[in-house]
């Protein structure tokens, strides 16, 4: 079936609606066809790239009619880098489909009775809303078909984003509309400096090259952190790069680097060097200051994170005498945010450095009713831990995209907390966990929150209450 259908062109396919992962769908001969790069209402010819017995996938090769819902993308890299798959769809429709995505996941996966899903809480900023971006250096710059066919000899050095599904090809980013402040200037100036000085860009296949990765973090308090990841231990080259950044951008408040010769770009197990400034930056929310280290997780849309946490706090409806467990607490942002309305908040997080930040965040804000522990959630949240701490009146959980380990879910069922506020960046795994929790809990409220305009990702907050 797959070989027979591949490269077949379906003509005049009406695109009906948005599906999962940013794709849209239409129907051809009673089969669903998933199509990239289109909008509901488009009429297109589609080349099939994958054919299965129950569905097909394809890409548009010709447009007969354009949807009313289309808008002009504002980024020259749209359609190539893969970071913003919905720039061609108006924002109101983006929010509508994000709500629908949550509803679909809960109906298809959770299969439990749910209240009406509230309209998606939109982001005031739809551009320049991210406070963190990772850029990759590469000697394998992505070339367009036109560039390849031109026969010209192009410099293959690039600093930008990975092409979707191609780990060794990088789009050389000129301007990114996801992060403002100094982000574009730092990236472009560093690329220019590296090329002018003959510094090597990383070869991911050969695992060689000096410049490997660039991370830029910014805050609403106008602080900034720049981390350069080097693929080789070259003191002279490292010094040259770091001195350039320090002199060119004196406004950087935290300038760090790390030497990483591993097979991947993660550096949680590596030592970072503070070249200048502090080894942290600070974010502010409702009068509270939050310290963020280079290894700390913090919601990547600072302004919308405030709206997200307000939803979580409203769902919690704390009266002041409750014990709260904050699972996957990160740097303790939610824990410290709700602490003034609770008797005690106990946070658990896998990354030790984040827990140290969480403790500092309590200290600098004069909060004395929090406790923080570092460790793997499924190992930490055990009988001994429960025996040594007060039973929770409320559990707030904000796990990574994979959701909660089933062992953690089973412990939540044993704890019998009256309420659970479940914050998730992946409604599918959230729905899966809610299905397991439905043994004892019912869904009271569901609020999608858009943290990532121009993408198909949606954050979701669910209130669960113990069945009577």
From TrEMBL:
Entry's Gene Ontology BP terms: rRNA base methylation
Cited Pfam families: TRAM, tRNA_U5-meth_tr
Superkingdom to which the source organism belongs: Bacteria
GO terms of molecular function: rRNA (uridine-C5-)-methyltransferase activity
Keyword terms, alphabetized: Methyltransferase, S-adenosyl-L-methionine, Transferase
Matches recorded under InterPro entries: MeTrfase_TrmA_AS, MeTrfase_TrmA_CS, NA-bd_OB-fold, SAM-dependent_MTases_sf, TRAM_dom, U5_MeTrfase_fam
Residue intervals of the TRAM domain: 3-62
Active site per database record: 425, 425 (nucleophile)
Binding site for S-adenosyl-L-methionine: 299, 328, 349, 398
PANTHER family, per database record: RNA M5U METHYLTRANSFERASE, TRNA (URACIL(54)-C(5))-METHYLTRANSFERASE
NCBIfam families the UniProt entry points to: rumA
Family: Belongs to the class I-like SAM-binding methyltransferase superfamily. RNA M5U methyltransferase family.
Designated name of the protein: 23S rRNA m(5)U-1939 methyltransferase
Native source organism of the sequence: Algoriphagus aquimarinus
């Amino acid at each position: 079936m797959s070989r027979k259908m591949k490269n077949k062109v379906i003509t005049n396919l009406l695109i009906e609606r948005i599906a999962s992962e940013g794709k849209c769908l239409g129907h051809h001969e009673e089969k669903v066809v998933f199509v990239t790069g289109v909008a509901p209402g488009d009429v297109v010819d589609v080349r099939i790239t994958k054919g299965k017995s129950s569905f097909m996938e394809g890409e548009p090769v010709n447009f007969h009619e354009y949807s009313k819902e289309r808008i002009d993308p504002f980024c020259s890299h749209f359609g190539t880098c893969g970071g913003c798959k919905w720039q061609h769809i108006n924002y109101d429709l983006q929010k509508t489909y994000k709500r629908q995505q949550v509803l679909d996941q809960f109906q298809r996966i959770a299969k439990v009775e749910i209240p009406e899903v509230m309209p998606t809480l939109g982001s005031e900023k739809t551009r320049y809303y991210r406070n963190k971006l990772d850029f990759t250096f590469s000697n394998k710059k992505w070339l367009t078909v036109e560039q390849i066919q031109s026969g010209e000899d192009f410099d293959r050095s690039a600093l930008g984003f990975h092409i979707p599904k191609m780990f060794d090809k990088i789009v050389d980013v000129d301007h990114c509309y996801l992060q403002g402040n100094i982000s574009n200037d730092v990236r472009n100036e560093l690329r220019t400096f590296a090329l002018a000085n003959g510094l090597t860009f990383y070869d991911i296949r050969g695992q060689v090259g000096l410049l490997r990765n660039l991370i830029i973090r910014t805050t609403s308090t106008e602080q900034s952190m720049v981390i350069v990841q080097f693929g080789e231990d070259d003191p002279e080259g490292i010094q040259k790069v770091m001195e350039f950044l320090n002199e060119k951008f004196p406004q950087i408040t935290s300038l760090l680097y790390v030497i990483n010769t591993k097979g991947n770009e993660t550096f949680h197990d590596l030592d970072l060097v503070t070249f200048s400034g502090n080894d942290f930056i600070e974010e502010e929310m409702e009068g509270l200051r939050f310290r963020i280290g280079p290894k700390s997780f913090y919601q990547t849309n600072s302004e919308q994170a405030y709206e997200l946490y307000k939803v979580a706090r409203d769902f919690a409806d704390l009266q002041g005498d409750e014990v709260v467990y904050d699972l996957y607490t990160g740097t303790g942002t939610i824990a410290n945010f709700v602490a003034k309305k609770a008797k005690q908040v106990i946070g658990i997080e896998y990354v030790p450095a984040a827990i140290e930040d969480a403790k500092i965040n309590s200290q600098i804000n004069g909060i004395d009713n929090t406790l923080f522990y570092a460790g793997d959630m499924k190992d930490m949240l055990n009988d001994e831990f429960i025996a040594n701490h007060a039973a929770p009146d409320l559990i707030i959980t904000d796990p990574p995209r994979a959701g909660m380990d089933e062992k953690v879910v089973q412990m939540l069922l044993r704890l019998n907390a009256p309420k659970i506020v479940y914050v998730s960046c992946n409604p599918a795994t959230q729905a899966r966990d809610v299905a397991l929790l439905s043994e004892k809990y019912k869904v009271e409220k569901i609020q999608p929150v858009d943290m990532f305009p121009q993408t198909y990702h949606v954050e979701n907050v669910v209130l669960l209450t113990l069945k009577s």
